[in-house]
Design goal:
This protein is of the alpha+beta class and about 475 residues long. About 35% of the residues lie in helices and about 20% in strands.
């Protein structure tokens, strides 16, 4: 029986060679200008280039029935733009939110964007971004409480994902929040009850004015007036220069420095009309148009994945024959643009700008969903009661790696997430449908290269090598 080899990773996807080429050009341009990238950005870029490289180590799965070998490579754990690591984080956290955080009540997405001059400031200063978010959330929370007869005695809750990217891969810090669409109150018998409150467009219009005025007042107390926020303070920090250009949709370095990204257009422009439950005020925009019923848990998980998605999907990326990189847009812009064209240097600049500051929290829980909230234990979904027989079965499943669709509290495994998101069996042999067993974890690069060489020699040319899905770690 012949031996077959399958490599699962993202090292040979389209983005890796583009970033490798662009990063070399970026370093050359920065060296000529006497500038450097911050250490955490350099580590993120180097980690991405090594992400999915089997020579750095892998998990070795083996099928005893047909001698099939599946090598699952390690990931970089990057927080900025890596689709593989971001996809794992998206799938894991969204499943956790649905099963163990967000109660079975109506929910609503609130999206808050700030004026352009403030976006660069908040992207560079996590403390200011946290403060603006806190001011805005308090106003929305007070609106929920005051809209009901319970007044300030009621409590709502929310979870926020701080997104740093726009559809053009530009730096565009904004807040995506999932609110419990109503409030909890304590009934006379001591139980918590939930009452839904649905906002109307007029409510959103009043709220965005209150948020804009309160945020500007708070920023003013911190020393940032209406015209502050777009100056590069650290001249030797190359990421600050790149982020400032990214915010404006421009190239920062090279021959096209200061120029806008080239667009591919197919039709004429058209007037943009705000949708329902959406309003703007002096650059602040608030949108609350997506609401979900309490029973729509699958829709809630899709919404959670939308909040937590990586900035760039592989399907949007295309390398043209002339060496240019085309990034497709999710929706046609109002001017008819369907895609943007970048050189490898320009695309790498966009990715560098998206790397968040070290130790800057990108997820915020508030209200009854906050970690220390008094009512949290009473509102979050509870794990299913477990009988001794079920506990024994769970332990057996963990040891045998049999299918599992619900998590019992521990971190979900790689194959659990593959099954939940893509209906793919990570521990099932593609040749004979038998079980794949974990043979060992290889962490020594020298040993890893030796094992790969031996397997390739035994199997012949690695025709079965695959990039994997590009989103799972």
């Amino acid at each position: 029986m012949s031996c077959t080899l399958e490599l699962r990773g993202s090292l040979h996807d389209l983005l890796h060679p583009i970033v490798q080429e662009g990063l070399a050009s970026l370093r050359g341009a920065l060296g000529a200008a006497g500038a450097t990238l911050p250490g955490h950005v350099e580590r993120e870029m180097e980690g991405f280039l090594a992400c999915g490289d089997p020579s750095n180590g892998f998990a070795w799965l083996h099928c005893g029935g047909c001698d099939h070998h599946r090598l699952v490579t390690f990931s970089c754990k990057g927080r900025g733009f890596c689709g593989r690591c971001g996809g794992r984080r998206m799938a894991e956290r969204s499943a956790w939110w649905v099963e163990r955080v967000i109660p079975h009540v109506a929910t609503r997405q609130w999206v808050l964007t700030v004026p352009w001059k403030r976006r660069w400031l908040l992207a560079r200063r996590p403390d200011l971004a946290s403060g603006v978010h806190r001011v805005a959330m308090r106003i929305i929370e007070r609106w929920y409480a005051k809209t009901t007869v319970a007044g300030n005695a009621g409590r709502t809750g929310s979870v926020t994902a701080v997104q740093r990217f726009g559809s053009a891969l530009n730096l565009n810090l904004h807040f995506h929040c999932i609110f419990l669409d109503g409030i909890y109150t304590r009934a006379g018998d001591g139980r918590l009850t939930f009452r839904q409150v649905v906002p109307h467009t007029e409510d959103v219009e009043r709220l965005v004015v209150s948020i804009g005025e309160a945020c500007e007042k708070w920023l003013g107390r911190k020393g940032f007036g209406p015209e502050d926020g777009d100056a590069v303070e650290e001249e030797d920090d190359a990421q600050a220069v790149i982020q400032s250009a990214s915010l404006l949709g421009q190239a920062a370095l090279g021959e096209r420095a200061g120029k806008k990204a080239r667009r591919i257009q197919v039709l004429g422009g058209k007037e943009f009309v705000l949708p329902p439950r959406c309003a703007s005020f002096e650059g602040y925009n608030l949108h609350a148009g997506v609401g979900l019923k309490a029973s729509d848990r699958s829709g809630l998980e899709r919404l959670c994945r939308y909040l937590l998605r990586p900035p760039l999907a592989k399907a949007r990326l295309e390398r043209r024959e002339d060496g240019m990189v085309m990034v497709g847009l999710k929706r046609v812009w109002s001017d008819g643009s369907t895609a943007l064209l970048f050189t490898p240097l320009e695309l790498t600049e966009r990715l560098v700008a998206l790397v968040p500051p070290s130790r800057a929290n990108q997820i915020v829980y508030r209200g009854v969903l906050a970690g220390n909230a008094k009512w949290r234990r009473e509102v979050i979904p509870r794990p299913r009661p477990e009988t001794p027989e079920a506990a024994a079965e769970r332990r057996a499943k963990r040891l045998s790696r049999r299918p599992r669709l619900h998590f019992e509290g521990e971190r979900p495994s790689w194959d659990d997430l593959l099954r939940r998101v893509f209906s793919v069996e990570g521990f099932v042999c593609p040749g004979c449908a038998g079980p794949l067993r974990l043979r060992t974890i290889v962490v020594n690069p020298v040993v890893a290269r030796r094992i790969i060489a031996g397997l390739q020699q035994a199997t012949g040319p690695p025709a079965g090598t695959t990039e994997g899905d590009g989103r799972m770690a």
